[in-house]
Amino acid sequence: MSSTQPYTDLGSWIARRAAISPDRPAITFGDDTQTFGALSHRIDCLAAQLREGGVAVGDRVGYLGPNHPAFLVTMFGCARAGAVFVPLNFRLTGAELAYIIGDAGIGTLIVDASLTPGVDAVRDELAVTRWIAVGTVDGWESFDAVASASEPITDPAAPEPSDVGLIMYTSGTTGRPKGAMLTHGNMFWNNVNALLSLDVTSTDISLVCAPLFHIGGLNVTTLVTLQKGGQIVLMPAFDPVQALKLIADKHITTMFGVPAMYLFMSQVPDFETTDVSSIRYLVCGGAPVPEPLMRRYGARGIPFAQGYGLTETAPLALVMSTDESERKIGAAGNKVVPLSDVRLVDADYNEVPVGEPGEICVRGPQVMAGYWRNEAATRAVIDDGGWFHTGDIGTADADGYVFVVDRVKDMVITGGENVYPAEVESVLYSHPAVAEVAVLGTPHEKWGEAVTAVVALKPDATLTLDELREHAKDRLAGYKLPLRLEFVDALPRNPSGKVLKFQLRDALAE
Ligand code: ATP
Ligand code: MG
């Protein structure tokens, strides 16, 4: 490796690891396991092919597909070639996808064979020049052929920490996803912060079942485990039964998931009897871990580490170890990660006193460069002092632990009082008839907004508004109790399991 290679360069992570432990297992997918040496070789071959195909420094390469080794080979290969990697959400279809592919200016597009028909349907609208399928598809080059067509790259790009490595679109929980520009430095420093705050070892075997195209699936345990020299086991997509089976079969030691995934796993009938003794701890983020869920896993000897962050912060901003997680039950994150700053501010950007709610702001080397081709949106979230405004409300306690309260956008204002849905939801979840619940504000003539509970019932269960209010009234102030109850079969969720409240809001407005 040339001595001018910046140590922060994402493209060099696997090459450097392969130089240390080439024969250690890196990625397992189905029955296949690639060592670090083999992975590094494949990455460098793909990088050479991308360059030979005309991909220049800064060009965007898109990847659309479920979790697969090709995703990671492409990401690292792009970095080796100096290209910008753009992971795409495979739940998006047709017009949405065409919009993002056009917006990002993707020239080379790599698509899982299962998803090429959807792309072919909008092919005429795309300015893509090279079409590569993971699998065998008519009219597409094959990824395997491409990745073995050239000798490994000998003069990889040497991106600076400030160069963009990925454009990663946000989850679209509150509306249309935004393209966060993550630099090589962002990726590197997030990994350093993760290694400094989570207990990661080179003998870890991490299950990857959250989508890699989301920051949580990619950057919380996946890349951290790889850079540390541990092994990852990829699942194409999350399935609670399969996840439990893999934990037992592959002796999984840790994984990243969102609470919904852990909830669904705990509802599998085999949950109590599956051998989970290899698990050291689970990492949860994206939303707070409800206390009953923590207890269920605790009963099986499994602790949680928790984290809070956003795509825009690559993502770690707050992390809580397993011990702290036990001590501060209900806290959604805890102390700021070592190499970053966090503060809570009011509407005038003044820091709020201990215990008072304020918007969580993050500053540090993991904060994105900005939104892709959207200067106005960038200026709206990153202030002159370099603070990124998250749009989330939190409170801090005297020990410096930050409790994430809710999104600014989701707060319900009823009769002049602020109600944070997450607090109400955690109480309603304990009602025995409730399988899933989301709380949101709906327009109300007298109170401005009405606290509204949208519930998916457990099989054969029934529930009335009065029963729900009665259940919650000892634990919630009167104004926080639901005024309206609506039922759905299941809550609308995005691929990482987050409830799409804007969809519920639209549906209720009709
Ligand atoms: P969009 O910005 O497109 O609406 P999104 O904000 O859901 O989507 P992500 O960047 O994937 O996209 O998610 C970040 C958000 O997830 C945070 O702003 C916060 O609201 C929520 N979040 C993340 N971790 C936690 C946590 N531990 N507790 C509570 N909320 C969390
Ligand atoms: Mg967001």
TrEMBL record:
<dbReference type="InterPro" id="IPR025110">
    <property type="entry name" value="AMP-bd_C"/>
</dbReference>
<feature type="domain" description="AMP-binding enzyme C-terminal">
    <location>
        <begin position="423"/>
        <end position="498"/>
    </location>
</feature>
<protein>
    <submittedName>
        <fullName>Long-chain fatty acid--CoA ligase</fullName>
    </submittedName>
</protein>
<dbReference type="InterPro" id="IPR050237">
    <property type="entry name" value="ATP-dep_AMP-bd_enzyme"/>
</dbReference>
<dbReference type="GO" id="GO:0016878">
    <property type="term" value="F:acid-thiol ligase activity"/>
</dbReference>
<comment type="similarity">
    <text>Belongs to the ATP-dependent AMP-binding enzyme family.</text>
</comment>
<dbReference type="InterPro" id="IPR000873">
    <property type="entry name" value="AMP-dep_synth/lig_dom"/>
</dbReference>
<dbReference type="Pfam" id="PF00501">
    <property type="entry name" value="AMP-binding"/>
</dbReference>
<dbReference type="InterPro" id="IPR042099">
    <property type="entry name" value="ANL_N_sf"/>
</dbReference>
<dbReference type="Pfam" id="PF13193">
    <property type="entry name" value="AMP-binding_C"/>
</dbReference>
<dbReference type="InterPro" id="IPR020845">
    <property type="entry name" value="AMP-binding_CS"/>
</dbReference>
<dbReference type="InterPro" id="IPR045851">
    <property type="entry name" value="AMP-bd_C_sf"/>
</dbReference>
<feature type="domain" description="AMP-dependent synthetase/ligase">
    <location>
        <begin position="15"/>
        <end position="372"/>
    </location>
</feature>
<keyword id="KW-0436">Ligase</keyword>
